[in-house]
Amino acid sequence: MDFTLSEEQLMIQQAARDFARNELLPGVIERDDAQKFPFELVQKMGELGFMGMMVNEKYNGSGLDTLSYVLAMEELSKVDASASVMVSVNNSLVCWGLQTFGTEAQKAKYLSRLSTGEIIGAFCLSEPEAGSDATSQKTTAIDKGDHYILNGTKNWITNGGSAEVFLVIAQTHIEKGHKGINALIVEKGMEGFEVGPKENKLGIRGSDTHSLIFNDVKVPKENRIGEDGFGFKFAMKTLAGGRIGIAAQALGIAAGAYELALKYSKERKTFGTEIANHQAIAFKLADMHTKIQAARNLVYQAACEKDAGKDYTLSGAMAKLYASEVAMETTIEAVQIHGGNGFVKDYHVERLMRDAKITQIYEGTSEIQKIVISRSVLKD
Ligand code: CAA
Protein backbone atom coordinates (compact mmCIF):
# COMPACT_ATOMS: atom_id res chain seq x y z
CA MET A 1 0.00 0.00 0.00
CA ASP A 2 1.23 3.48 -0.83
CA PHE A 3 0.91 5.83 2.12
CA THR A 4 2.37 8.91 0.42
CA LEU A 5 0.51 11.82 1.97
CA SER A 6 -1.12 14.47 -0.21
CA GLU A 7 -0.42 18.20 0.23
CA GLU A 8 -3.77 18.53 1.99
CA GLN A 9 -3.06 15.63 4.35
CA LEU A 10 0.35 17.09 5.23
CA MET A 11 -1.31 20.43 6.00
CA ILE A 12 -3.86 18.79 8.30
CA GLN A 13 -1.11 16.89 10.07
CA GLN A 14 0.84 20.12 10.57
CA ALA A 15 -2.25 22.02 11.75
CA ALA A 16 -2.96 19.34 14.36
CA ARG A 17 0.71 19.31 15.43
CA ASP A 18 0.71 23.10 15.85
CA PHE A 19 -2.57 23.09 17.74
CA ALA A 20 -1.34 20.35 20.07
CA ARG A 21 1.91 22.20 20.79
CA ASN A 22 0.45 25.70 21.13
CA GLU A 23 -2.97 25.08 22.65
CA LEU A 24 -3.02 21.63 24.26
CA LEU A 25 0.46 21.39 25.79
CA PRO A 26 0.06 24.45 28.05
CA GLY A 27 -1.99 23.27 31.02
CA VAL A 28 -2.11 19.58 30.09
CA ILE A 29 -0.63 18.51 33.45
CA GLU A 30 -3.02 20.75 35.37
CA ARG A 31 -6.04 19.48 33.40
CA ASP A 32 -5.01 15.90 34.15
CA ASP A 33 -4.68 16.77 37.86
CA ALA A 34 -7.95 18.66 38.05
CA GLN A 35 -9.84 16.22 35.79
CA LYS A 36 -11.08 19.14 33.70
CA PHE A 37 -11.16 20.08 30.05
CA PRO A 38 -12.43 23.59 29.24
CA PHE A 39 -15.14 23.53 26.59
CA GLU A 40 -13.46 26.52 24.86
CA LEU A 41 -10.73 24.09 23.76
CA VAL A 42 -13.36 21.83 22.18
CA GLN A 43 -14.74 24.86 20.37
CA LYS A 44 -11.26 25.82 19.17
CA MET A 45 -10.80 22.30 17.81
CA GLY A 46 -14.18 22.72 16.15
CA GLU A 47 -13.09 26.00 14.53
CA LEU A 48 -10.10 24.18 13.05
CA GLY A 49 -12.40 21.47 11.69
CA PHE A 50 -11.25 18.67 14.02
CA MET A 51 -14.69 17.86 15.47
CA GLY A 52 -16.39 16.80 12.24
CA MET A 53 -13.50 15.77 10.07
CA MET A 54 -15.26 13.14 7.95
CA VAL A 55 -18.62 14.92 7.89
CA ASN A 56 -19.85 16.20 4.56
CA GLU A 57 -19.51 19.98 4.10
CA LYS A 58 -23.31 20.11 3.65
CA TYR A 59 -23.53 19.44 7.40
CA ASN A 60 -20.75 21.88 8.31
CA GLY A 61 -18.10 19.16 8.36
CA SER A 62 -14.58 19.22 6.94
CA GLY A 63 -15.36 16.62 4.26
CA LEU A 64 -12.03 14.85 4.74
CA ASP A 65 -11.00 11.21 4.44
CA THR A 66 -10.24 8.77 7.26
CA LEU A 67 -6.49 9.00 6.69
CA SER A 68 -6.61 12.76 7.40
CA TYR A 69 -8.58 11.98 10.54
CA VAL A 70 -6.00 9.49 11.84
CA LEU A 71 -3.18 11.92 11.06
CA ALA A 72 -4.88 14.55 13.22
CA MET A 73 -5.67 12.00 15.94
CA GLU A 74 -2.03 10.92 16.11
CA GLU A 75 -0.77 14.50 16.51
CA LEU A 76 -3.34 15.49 19.14
CA SER A 77 -2.73 12.26 21.08
CA LYS A 78 1.03 12.84 21.25
CA VAL A 79 0.27 15.71 23.61
CA ASP A 80 -3.19 15.25 25.14
CA ALA A 81 -5.09 11.96 24.92
CA SER A 82 -7.97 13.47 26.91
CA ALA A 83 -8.54 15.93 24.07
CA SER A 84 -8.17 13.24 21.43
CA VAL A 85 -10.71 10.86 22.95
CA MET A 86 -13.28 13.67 22.86
CA VAL A 87 -12.38 14.20 19.21
CA SER A 88 -12.49 10.48 18.46
CA VAL A 89 -15.88 9.75 20.04
CA ASN A 90 -17.45 12.81 18.46
CA ASN A 91 -15.99 12.07 15.01
CA SER A 92 -16.05 8.33 14.55
CA LEU A 93 -18.93 7.24 16.71
CA VAL A 94 -21.39 10.11 16.90
CA CYS A 95 -20.87 12.11 13.68
CA TRP A 96 -20.03 9.15 11.46
CA GLY A 97 -22.95 7.14 12.88
CA LEU A 98 -25.42 9.97 12.27
CA GLN A 99 -24.06 10.84 8.84
CA THR A 100 -24.15 7.22 7.66
CA PHE A 101 -27.41 6.02 9.20
CA GLY A 102 -29.34 9.11 10.33
CA THR A 103 -32.34 10.68 8.59
CA GLU A 104 -32.05 14.04 6.85
CA ALA A 105 -33.99 15.61 9.73
CA GLN A 106 -31.60 14.10 12.31
CA LYS A 107 -28.59 15.30 10.34
CA ALA A 108 -30.00 18.82 10.03
CA LYS A 109 -30.90 19.00 13.70
CA TYR A 110 -27.85 17.37 15.31
CA LEU A 111 -25.00 16.67 12.90
CA SER A 112 -24.62 20.25 11.68
CA ARG A 113 -23.91 21.40 15.24
CA LEU A 114 -21.85 18.39 16.32
CA SER A 115 -19.46 18.79 13.42
CA THR A 116 -18.48 22.35 14.34
CA GLY A 117 -17.75 21.79 18.04
CA GLU A 118 -20.72 23.97 19.02
CA ILE A 119 -21.92 20.88 20.87
CA ILE A 120 -20.38 17.48 21.51
CA GLY A 121 -21.86 13.99 21.46
CA ALA A 122 -21.60 10.72 23.40
CA PHE A 123 -22.03 7.08 22.40
CA CYS A 124 -23.84 5.04 25.02
CA LEU A 125 -23.51 1.28 24.68
CA SER A 126 -21.74 0.04 27.85
CA GLU A 127 -23.72 -0.89 30.94
CA PRO A 128 -22.77 -2.15 34.40
CA GLU A 129 -23.27 -5.70 33.08
CA ALA A 130 -22.82 -5.19 29.34
CA GLY A 131 -19.29 -4.09 28.48
CA SER A 132 -17.60 -6.65 26.26
CA ASP A 133 -20.81 -8.70 26.12
CA ALA A 134 -22.59 -5.93 24.29
CA THR A 135 -25.72 -7.86 23.23
CA SER A 136 -26.77 -8.21 26.92
CA GLN A 137 -28.42 -4.80 26.99
CA LYS A 138 -30.56 -4.23 30.10
CA THR A 139 -31.58 -0.69 29.19
CA THR A 140 -35.06 -0.85 27.70
CA ALA A 141 -36.78 1.32 25.10
CA ILE A 142 -40.44 0.34 25.21
CA ASP A 143 -42.43 1.15 22.08
CA LYS A 144 -45.39 3.40 22.89
CA GLY A 145 -46.53 4.20 19.37
CA ASP A 146 -45.07 7.60 18.52
CA HIS A 147 -42.37 7.45 21.19
CA TYR A 148 -40.19 5.14 23.31
CA ILE A 149 -39.94 5.05 27.08
CA LEU A 150 -36.30 4.61 28.02
CA ASN A 151 -35.17 3.08 31.33
CA GLY A 152 -31.76 1.92 32.50
CA THR A 153 -28.18 2.87 33.29
CA LYS A 154 -25.15 3.35 31.04
CA ASN A 155 -21.59 3.22 32.36
CA TRP A 156 -18.19 4.75 31.53
CA ILE A 157 -19.62 7.15 28.98
CA THR A 158 -16.99 9.41 27.41
CA ASN A 159 -18.18 13.06 27.19
CA GLY A 160 -21.00 12.03 29.55
CA GLY A 161 -21.03 15.33 31.42
CA SER A 162 -20.32 17.69 28.55
CA ALA A 163 -22.35 16.15 25.72
CA GLU A 164 -25.65 17.58 24.49
CA VAL A 165 -26.50 14.63 22.22
CA PHE A 166 -26.37 10.96 23.28
CA LEU A 167 -26.70 7.95 21.00
CA VAL A 168 -28.24 5.39 23.34
CA ILE A 169 -28.44 1.66 22.61
CA ALA A 170 -31.43 -0.06 24.26
CA GLN A 171 -33.48 -3.23 24.06
CA THR A 172 -37.00 -2.94 22.63
CA HIS A 173 -37.98 -6.52 21.78
CA ILE A 174 -36.27 -8.74 24.36
CA GLU A 175 -37.54 -11.92 22.65
CA LYS A 176 -35.59 -11.02 19.51
CA GLY A 177 -32.21 -10.75 21.29
CA HIS A 178 -29.75 -8.44 19.55
CA LYS A 179 -32.18 -8.07 16.63
CA GLY A 180 -34.59 -6.29 18.99
CA ILE A 181 -32.15 -3.56 19.99
CA ASN A 182 -32.58 0.09 18.93
CA ALA A 183 -30.33 3.16 18.84
CA LEU A 184 -32.03 6.37 20.00
CA ILE A 185 -30.92 9.99 20.01
CA VAL A 186 -31.38 11.43 23.48
CA GLU A 187 -30.91 15.11 24.25
CA LYS A 188 -29.47 16.56 27.43
CA GLY A 189 -32.30 17.94 29.51
CA MET A 190 -34.95 15.42 28.47
CA GLU A 191 -37.14 14.74 31.49
CA GLY A 192 -35.96 11.72 33.49
CA PHE A 193 -32.42 11.79 32.07
CA GLU A 194 -29.75 12.26 34.71
CA VAL A 195 -25.95 12.42 34.45
CA GLY A 196 -24.23 10.50 37.26
CA PRO A 197 -21.02 11.53 39.05
CA LYS A 198 -17.75 11.85 37.14
CA GLU A 199 -15.45 8.80 37.27
CA ASN A 200 -12.06 9.31 38.98
CA LYS A 201 -9.82 7.63 36.41
CA LEU A 202 -6.25 6.31 36.06
CA GLY A 203 -5.73 8.06 32.72
CA ILE A 204 -7.34 10.40 30.19
CA ARG A 205 -8.35 12.28 33.32
CA GLY A 206 -9.12 15.51 31.48
CA SER A 207 -11.95 13.86 29.58
CA ASP A 208 -15.21 13.48 31.47
CA THR A 209 -16.54 9.96 31.93
CA HIS A 210 -19.89 9.44 33.63
CA SER A 211 -22.65 6.96 34.23
CA LEU A 212 -26.02 8.00 32.81
CA ILE A 213 -29.40 7.20 34.31
CA PHE A 214 -32.63 7.03 32.27
CA ASN A 215 -35.83 7.05 34.25
CA ASP A 216 -38.95 6.91 32.05
CA VAL A 217 -37.38 9.20 29.47
CA LYS A 218 -39.80 9.89 26.60
CA VAL A 219 -37.89 9.75 23.31
CA PRO A 220 -39.80 10.60 20.10
CA LYS A 221 -39.77 7.84 17.49
CA GLU A 222 -38.23 10.21 14.94
CA ASN A 223 -35.10 9.97 17.14
CA ARG A 224 -34.57 6.29 16.33
CA ILE A 225 -31.58 5.64 14.06
CA GLY A 226 -32.39 3.25 11.23
CA GLU A 227 -35.10 0.58 11.08
CA ASP A 228 -36.69 -0.97 14.15
CA GLY A 229 -34.12 -3.47 15.52
CA PHE A 230 -31.10 -1.93 13.75
CA GLY A 231 -29.50 -0.70 17.00
CA PHE A 232 -26.98 -3.49 17.57
CA LYS A 233 -25.80 -3.49 13.95
CA PHE A 234 -25.56 0.29 14.22
CA ALA A 235 -23.33 -0.06 17.29
CA MET A 236 -21.10 -2.71 15.68
CA LYS A 237 -20.70 -0.90 12.36
CA THR A 238 -19.97 2.37 14.11
CA LEU A 239 -17.48 0.79 16.51
CA ALA A 240 -15.63 -0.87 13.61
CA GLY A 241 -14.65 2.63 12.45
CA GLY A 242 -14.27 3.95 16.01
CA ARG A 243 -11.54 1.39 16.56
CA ILE A 244 -9.46 3.03 13.82
CA GLY A 245 -9.70 6.32 15.72
CA ILE A 246 -8.62 4.70 19.00
CA ALA A 247 -5.81 2.88 17.18
CA ALA A 248 -4.62 6.29 15.96
CA GLN A 249 -4.87 7.61 19.50
CA ALA A 250 -2.73 4.72 20.77
CA LEU A 251 -0.24 5.36 17.97
CA GLY A 252 -0.04 9.03 18.96
CA ILE A 253 0.48 8.23 22.65
CA ALA A 254 3.31 5.85 21.70
CA ALA A 255 4.89 8.31 19.28
CA GLY A 256 4.62 11.16 21.80
CA ALA A 257 6.37 9.12 24.49
CA TYR A 258 9.03 7.98 22.03
CA GLU A 259 9.78 11.55 20.91
CA LEU A 260 10.18 12.65 24.53
CA ALA A 261 12.42 9.66 25.32
CA LEU A 262 14.57 10.27 22.24
CA LYS A 263 15.09 13.93 23.14
CA TYR A 264 15.82 13.13 26.79
CA SER A 265 18.33 10.42 25.89
CA LYS A 266 20.36 12.95 23.91
CA GLU A 267 20.40 15.43 26.82
CA ARG A 268 20.74 13.34 29.95
CA LYS A 269 24.27 12.25 30.79
CA THR A 270 25.47 9.28 32.86
CA PHE A 271 28.94 7.80 33.13
CA GLY A 272 30.35 10.79 31.23
CA THR A 273 28.19 10.57 28.11
CA GLU A 274 24.62 11.10 26.88
CA ILE A 275 22.51 8.07 27.79
CA ALA A 276 21.65 7.55 24.08
CA ASN A 277 25.27 6.39 23.72
CA HIS A 278 24.60 3.46 26.04
CA GLN A 279 23.45 0.47 24.06
CA ALA A 280 20.90 -0.36 26.79
CA ILE A 281 19.09 2.87 25.89
CA ALA A 282 19.81 2.86 22.15
CA PHE A 283 18.29 -0.60 21.76
CA LYS A 284 15.16 0.46 23.60
CA LEU A 285 14.82 3.36 21.15
CA ALA A 286 15.35 0.99 18.22
CA ASP A 287 12.57 -1.30 19.45
CA MET A 288 10.22 1.60 20.10
CA HIS A 289 10.83 3.14 16.68
CA THR A 290 10.29 -0.18 14.87
CA LYS A 291 7.08 -1.05 16.70
CA ILE A 292 5.64 2.44 16.26
CA GLN A 293 6.27 2.31 12.52
CA ALA A 294 4.61 -1.12 12.32
CA ALA A 295 1.61 0.21 14.26
CA ARG A 296 1.44 3.26 11.99
CA ASN A 297 1.32 1.03 8.92
CA LEU A 298 -1.60 -0.95 10.38
CA VAL A 299 -3.48 2.22 11.31
CA TYR A 300 -2.96 3.81 7.89
CA GLN A 301 -3.94 0.56 6.18
CA ALA A 302 -7.23 0.39 8.09
CA ALA A 303 -7.94 4.06 7.29
CA CYS A 304 -7.15 3.55 3.59
CA GLU A 305 -9.36 0.46 3.42
CA LYS A 306 -12.23 2.46 4.89
CA ASP A 307 -11.62 5.27 2.40
CA ALA A 308 -11.53 2.74 -0.45
CA GLY A 309 -14.96 1.42 0.55
CA LYS A 310 -13.56 -1.99 1.58
CA ASP A 311 -14.54 -3.95 4.70
CA TYR A 312 -12.28 -2.56 7.43
CA THR A 313 -13.55 -4.58 10.40
CA LEU A 314 -10.49 -6.84 10.43
CA SER A 315 -7.88 -4.18 9.67
CA GLY A 316 -9.40 -1.81 12.25
CA ALA A 317 -9.34 -4.51 14.94
CA MET A 318 -5.74 -5.45 14.11
CA ALA A 319 -4.68 -1.81 14.15
CA LYS A 320 -6.31 -1.23 17.54
CA LEU A 321 -4.98 -4.43 19.06
CA TYR A 322 -1.41 -3.81 17.96
CA ALA A 323 -1.22 -0.03 18.37
CA SER A 324 -2.61 -0.20 21.91
CA GLU A 325 -0.04 -2.86 22.87
CA VAL A 326 2.70 -0.68 21.39
CA ALA A 327 1.35 2.34 23.29
CA MET A 328 1.56 0.45 26.58
CA GLU A 329 5.04 -1.02 25.93
CA THR A 330 6.47 2.22 24.55
CA THR A 331 5.21 4.43 27.35
CA ILE A 332 6.58 2.03 29.99
CA GLU A 333 9.98 2.15 28.26
CA ALA A 334 9.81 5.93 27.95
CA VAL A 335 9.33 6.18 31.71
CA GLN A 336 12.25 3.78 32.20
CA ILE A 337 14.53 5.86 29.96
CA HIS A 338 13.61 8.97 31.95
CA GLY A 339 14.50 7.17 35.21
CA GLY A 340 13.44 9.13 38.29
CA ASN A 341 12.33 12.03 36.12
CA GLY A 342 9.94 9.68 34.34
CA PHE A 343 8.12 9.08 37.60
CA VAL A 344 7.23 12.74 38.14
CA LYS A 345 4.57 14.67 36.28
CA ASP A 346 6.68 17.45 34.74
CA TYR A 347 8.21 15.14 32.13
CA HIS A 348 4.83 14.01 30.71
CA VAL A 349 5.75 10.36 30.16
CA GLU A 350 4.05 9.06 33.33
CA ARG A 351 0.79 10.64 32.11
CA LEU A 352 1.20 9.08 28.67
CA MET A 353 1.77 5.71 30.36
CA ARG A 354 -1.44 6.10 32.37
CA ASP A 355 -3.31 7.26 29.26
CA ALA A 356 -2.06 4.32 27.19
CA LYS A 357 -3.86 1.74 29.33
CA ILE A 358 -7.38 2.73 28.28
CA THR A 359 -6.58 2.13 24.61
CA GLN A 360 -6.40 -1.60 25.46
CA ILE A 361 -9.85 -1.40 27.05
CA TYR A 362 -12.33 0.98 25.42
CA GLU A 363 -14.10 0.50 22.09
CA GLY A 364 -13.47 -3.23 22.58
CA THR A 365 -10.77 -4.67 24.84
CA SER A 366 -7.72 -6.36 23.30
CA GLU A 367 -9.46 -9.68 23.98
CA ILE A 368 -12.54 -8.51 22.01
CA GLN A 369 -10.27 -7.46 19.12
CA LYS A 370 -8.82 -10.98 19.16
CA ILE A 371 -12.37 -12.41 18.94
CA VAL A 372 -13.05 -10.21 15.91
CA ILE A 373 -9.70 -11.04 14.28
CA SER A 374 -9.82 -14.79 14.96
CA ARG A 375 -13.40 -15.09 13.69
CA SER A 376 -12.37 -13.35 10.49
CA VAL A 377 -9.25 -15.48 10.07
CA LEU A 378 -11.14 -18.73 10.73
CA LYS A 379 -13.94 -17.80 8.34
CA ASP A 380 -11.53 -17.65 5.37
N1 CAA B 1 -20.53 -4.96 11.40
C1 CAA B 1 -21.81 -5.32 11.19
N2 CAA B 1 -22.47 -6.25 11.93
C2 CAA B 1 -21.76 -6.86 12.90
C3 CAA B 1 -20.42 -6.56 13.18
C4 CAA B 1 -19.80 -5.56 12.38
N3 CAA B 1 -18.52 -5.19 12.57
N4 CAA B 1 -20.01 -7.33 14.20
C5 CAA B 1 -21.06 -8.09 14.56
N5 CAA B 1 -22.11 -7.80 13.79
C6 CAA B 1 -23.44 -8.40 13.80
C7 CAA B 1 -23.38 -9.91 13.51
O1 CAA B 1 -23.39 -10.15 12.13
C8 CAA B 1 -24.63 -10.41 14.20
O2 CAA B 1 -25.76 -10.16 13.37
P1 CAA B 1 -26.62 -11.39 12.72
O3 CAA B 1 -27.07 -12.24 13.88
O4 CAA B 1 -27.71 -10.69 12.02
O5 CAA B 1 -25.65 -12.10 11.82
C9 CAA B 1 -24.75 -9.48 15.39
O6 CAA B 1 -24.00 -8.32 15.10
C10 CAA B 1 -24.27 -10.12 16.67
O7 CAA B 1 -22.94 -10.48 16.45
P2 CAA B 1 -22.27 -11.73 17.18
O8 CAA B 1 -23.15 -12.92 17.07
O9 CAA B 1 -20.89 -11.84 16.67
O10 CAA B 1 -22.33 -11.24 18.70
P3 CAA B 1 -21.48 -11.63 19.95
O11 CAA B 1 -22.36 -11.60 21.15
O12 CAA B 1 -20.68 -12.88 19.69
O13 CAA B 1 -20.48 -10.37 20.15
C11 CAA B 1 -18.66 -8.91 19.77
C12 CAA B 1 -19.70 -9.84 19.17
C13 CAA B 1 -17.72 -8.56 18.63
C14 CAA B 1 -17.87 -9.56 20.89
C15 CAA B 1 -19.37 -7.63 20.30
O14 CAA B 1 -20.21 -7.92 21.38
C16 CAA B 1 -18.42 -6.53 20.67
O15 CAA B 1 -17.88 -5.84 19.80
N6 CAA B 1 -18.20 -6.29 22.00
C17 CAA B 1 -17.39 -5.18 22.46
C18 CAA B 1 -18.23 -3.95 22.62
C19 CAA B 1 -17.41 -2.69 22.64
O16 CAA B 1 -16.56 -2.46 21.81
N7 CAA B 1 -17.69 -1.82 23.60
C20 CAA B 1 -17.04 -0.57 23.66
C21 CAA B 1 -17.94 0.44 24.25
S1 CAA B 1 -18.04 1.93 23.37
C22 CAA B 1 -16.76 2.89 23.89
O17 CAA B 1 -15.83 2.44 24.49
C23 CAA B 1 -16.86 4.30 23.45
C24 CAA B 1 -16.13 5.27 24.28
O18 CAA B 1 -16.75 5.98 25.02
C25 CAA B 1 -14.70 5.48 24.08
From TrEMBL:
Transmembrane segments: none annotated. PROSITE patterns: ACYL_COA_DH_1, ACYL_COA_DH_2. Residues 6-118 form the Acyl-CoA dehydrogenase/oxidase N-terminal domain. The keyword ATP-binding does not apply. It comes from the Bacteria. Its cofactor is FAD. The keyword Oxidoreductase applies. Residues 231-377 form the Acyl-CoA dehydrogenase/oxidase C-terminal domain. Residues 122-217 form the Acyl-CoA oxidase/dehydrogenase middle domain. InterPro entries: Acyl-CoA_DH_CS, Acyl-CoA_Oxase/DH_mid-dom, Acyl-CoA_Oxase/DH_mid-dom_sf, AcylCo_DH-like_C, AcylCo_DH/oxidase_C, AcylCoA_DH/ox_N, AcylCoA_DH/ox_N_sf, AcylCoA_DH/oxidase_NM_dom_sf. Keywords: FAD, Flavoprotein, Oxidoreductase. Belongs to the acyl-CoA dehydrogenase family. This is Acyl-CoA dehydrogenase. It comes from Flagellimonas iocasae.
